[in-house]
Amino acid sequence: MAPKSSSKKRTATPSASTAAQQKTFEADLRSLARKARSDSLASSPLTLLLTQTTLYLRVTGLLLLAALSTLISQLSLSPVYGSIPSSSWHTYLVAAACFTGWSGNLALERALRRGREGGSGAAATYLLPVLALWVPVVHFVLGGFSGVLTARWGPVVTEAVALFPLVAVSASCVATELEGVDLSGLPLPGWVVEGVPGLGAYGGFKVAAGGLVGRTWVHTRVGMQVVLGGVYAVLAPSRLLVLTVPALFHTAVLNTHAPTPAALGRLNAGLAEVGYVLLDRAESNTGYISVLDSPKEGFRLLRCDHSLLGGEWVKFLGQGRFKGNQVAEPVYGVFTMLEAVRLVETPEPIVDSEANALVIGLGIGTTPAALIAHGIDTTVVELDPVVHRFASQYFQLPSNHTAVIEDAVTYTSRTAADESEPRFDYIIHDVFTGGAEPIALFTLEFLQNLHALLKPNGVVAINYAGDFALPPPRIVVNTIRTVFPTCRIFREHPRDEDDFALNGRDFTNMVIFCTKTDTNTNSDTNSDTNSGTVKTITFREPTERDLLNSPSRQAFLLPRHEVTDADFLVEGPDAEGVLRRNETERLVKWHAASAAGHWTVMRTVLPEAVWEAW
């Protein structure tokens, strides 16, 4: 029986083996058939187009996120360093990061894929959520060392640590993804096939970088950084996300820049140590806006990024001799000098109750409040809605004024061209933030629009803050004099000779008073009684009513420190000519030096902790 059984086994084995081979063969045939069908489909232009479109969507997403990260980085640096110092080296750093990531993408991919099999797309994408969510932590920590780093090196160091790796890895991922581009199977011209990848990448980046940042909670500085990291995490989930837990904890619990009530409470606990309290804050189209109180000293300030837009003494409101005052007492009394437009003697006296005024740039509303107190119909043009809201809510800006929340260039161009629009007896031009003025508001074309809006008998006062040791003040004055032939210039205080000798800096506010009358300003005769025309600008002595029961106005309303041509310390081609709309780079190149000087001055006005704890 045994041999028989053995014989059966021998005859069964070949049959099973043959069946298995048959199944394997059939499976191979089916696999080959599927591959053949896949290759056939892949070779069709429609399938190729869909495949390449998917690839481009991934690349576009990476570029959009990278572009947004660069915008958010600058926004996050501006409260600590100001917008101009934050941007001085930004473009070069981003370019270096892009070059590094693009050129090193193969080495990075090999390092990340070592020891792993398969995988599609760029493996480096898994690093992006980690890098993005640590950015607000780096900004917060290094911001606390801004006094040591200074406005010159602080932005560079911060972005080198936080932004450079994120942009470099993003560029590496884009380079890896674009290696899969193949449009050769499509009926397209050769230049399109060769140029689409590069043009598409560049175009996507520029569109994202040029977009407007929103103003909801999600679009606040810290909010945008967290959302950006969250989007990266959704697009590239991995076990590496565990590395973001400490960063998320810090942002949620310890970062006082976060737009939450808890963060505001922690911020004020720290500010109390240096004698300040933050009443309100918001992020708007001109920067980070906040209202600060000094309970000990009794004043209130309005801040925009690393600048102060104005302040007033709240401890005097309704107290003692100030009881019943129509205006608040300003902390920076020099700004009351702008109100001296009312003191300029004109050929025909201007009656307050019949006059109207245009104020460009609101701040806390010191000047418009005074004009309104004198019974002048006042229109305020302010770009930032939050500035107007805070001036009305926290400062003594009267409600009986006309508010125009609009870009001043657009407003003046439109109203100057429309003869049915009102003309003004007084125009006050007072715009400044971040160490430099908006250049467009000092061009020949803009000033010509102001000239058209000013009545023949009217007066304009233009506030300009700058460093007399640099060319911009002379260029601006040249431009103003080209439009308004009769002007006198005054600065807030004499030059600090010690500071100038030590630092070569002469930074100050100056106010340029001008009229439309074309006269000989060098004449010793102030007026011609026969013709009624003013030969040069003169100021009448202020009355008690002009001073509005204000010590600051008593000290500063009447201009005292006149500027002569000798005060402009720079001569030569850089300081000659006028500023035209298409030549604004003449001033831009000097803004970095001016903004750095302004940053240093601001650090002496308020404690470093106030600027850093925004």
Amount of beta strand: 5-15%
Tell me the number of structural domains: 2
Query: Taking strands numbered 1, 2, ... along the chain, how are they ordered across the largest sheet?
Result: 7-6-5-8-9-11-10-12
Class by alpha and beta content: alpha/beta
The DSSP helix count reads: 21
Q: Give the name of the CATH architecture of the largest domain.
A: 3-Layer(aba) Sandwich
The span between the termini is 97 Å
CATH superfamily (homologous) name of the largest domain: Vaccinia Virus protein VP39
* Biggest beta sheet summary: 8 strands, mixed
- What percent of residues adopt helix (DSSP H or I)? 40-55%
Unreliable runs: 1-13, 190-202, 204-214, 520-534
Query: What is the level 1 CATH name of the largest domain?
Result: Alpha Beta
> Outline, from the CA principal axes?
elongated
Radius of gyration: 33 Å
Q: What is the average of the pLDDT values? A: 85
CATH fold group of the largest domain:
Rossmann fold
Oligomer: single chain
